[in-house]
Amino acid sequence: MEVQCRGKIILNSNPLYCRLQVFFVFLRKIVPEKPACSHFLYKNSVDTKYIFVTGGVVSSLGKGIISSSLACLLKARGYRVTIQKFDPYINIDPGTLNPYEHGECYVTEDGHEADLDLGHYERFTNVRTSRANNVTTGRIYQSVIDKERRGDYLGKTVQIVPHITDEIKRNVKLLGNTGKYDFVITEIGGTVGDIESLPFLESVRQLRWELGQNSLCIHLTYVPYIRAAKELKTKPTQHSVKNLQELGIQPDILVLRTEKDIPADMRRKIALFCNVAPDSVIQSIDVNSIYKVPLKMHEQHLDEIVLRKTGVTPEGEPHMAPWLDFVAKLDSATEPVDIALVGKYVELQDAYKSISESLFHAATYAGRKLNLVYVHSEKLAPENVAEKLAGMDGVIIAPGFGQRGIEGKFTALRWCRENDIPTFGICLGMQCMVIEFARNVLGLEDANSTEMDTKTPHNVIDLMEEQKSISNLGGTMRLGAYDCTLREGSRAAQAYGTTHISERHRHRFEFNNDYRERFEQAGMACVGENPATKLVEVVEIPGKRWFIGTQYHPEYSSTVLSPNPIFRSFIDAAIAYRDERLAKK
Ligand code: GLN
Question: Does residue 12 register a pLDDT over 50?
């Protein structure tokens, strides 16, 4: 007897077993398509499949977006999906990296400082990531060297193959082995041909061999358009696939990043030269929003191809209705909302990736087109602040570290507070709100954070007690999700619609509770605190249109299908302020 259930052929000669299987297939037919319940019904109904995403030709092609888009589609088909990133650099994690090096440092709920691609993974899938979702060469070597020191290798010579590759393979399978996922998508950072990627690619080769049909490789390459010749060129793609083949990996699917439509015959040519099935050569053409990429991938059947190639029969269509609603909103929004982001890493917009995406989610849900203007805090001074921030509907004061650009943040904040502009301070931005208020409202002239001035007479922001004995920089901040209780009736509580929230942190300094009373009396309310430690997490000036600072980073938890409420509230306030001014004209 042969029964097919979610693409898995079940063969069994035991009649009772067969009847049970038939019953389950029958149940599947009568239960309506509902991804959430399919998790229960079909738990482990497919063996965990491992999808590897590699990149060639150049970096920044958007492997993270392609991985996220595929995950989004598989999730919308009811599968349990997680995405992980393996980065070939030696740093243990990106926590100590300057944002100019690698863009924003993303933080997971369990307090891991991670690559910014994990932000995309969460925003596209609504599935939380963790420390296990981001592994670097540094972590792999650290673990192997620790094992060697413990004597775990029993006197063997410790080598890249097999010890490093085995450790990589163990980490690749870590999440899959929990039994919680049907699909584990592994993005390999860097590009094929990098010396430091080699152990990762050798591990992918071995895993492809061991896992057979339960794995596949998607290779993302670039098809440049040579403007002078008016031609698309496939040679770089051919070379990068050859490179991969030399390492023993045959890609199953090619995703070609391009700015122009790649004609069918050119795709067929690529298929032929690269040993890839013609329908598995997919183009990823530039679109005006990354959130359209899942739809573009689905149009070319990427999700179905992945299912088929891993031995799963695709059934029906992915449940993309909420996603389509969001995309329809972003397409129909015409009226802008103008937001300024004051920070010091503005030359590199990836440094504020999660903030800009959260603002975009909120603006889109409000039916507006986000116009985000980056304002360099080092270039802001009392003489030009009115001109630089003129016409803005709302201002964000960005997170950050160190003295550089800090005075510009105080200048912006004073101007925003005095002119009652909707203002949102995040982490260092919140700390700057406190310092500016101390200096200009409480009259504590030299008030500061001890991060900027260790000798300040008014340390309104000070190092957390438990931080004082810490000397190592990596992974030692207050990191990850912490509970926060919001004051009933506060603007922040209204925004969240609850008084109990949990948000992610990444900081060493905090509001100094010795000053709390004075701030409250002068009109800056400490409306959010950690229930256990009483650390101040949210401040606001109730008398203003919208003036809130959060010690935590709400941007890490905003996703397309679940935008963060405080960003929504901020955008709504900015729109109201804009409309108020327009009405007066
Ligand atoms: N530098 C500040 C601190 O460590 C703020 C950090 C941040 O903005 N993420 O407390």
Answer: no
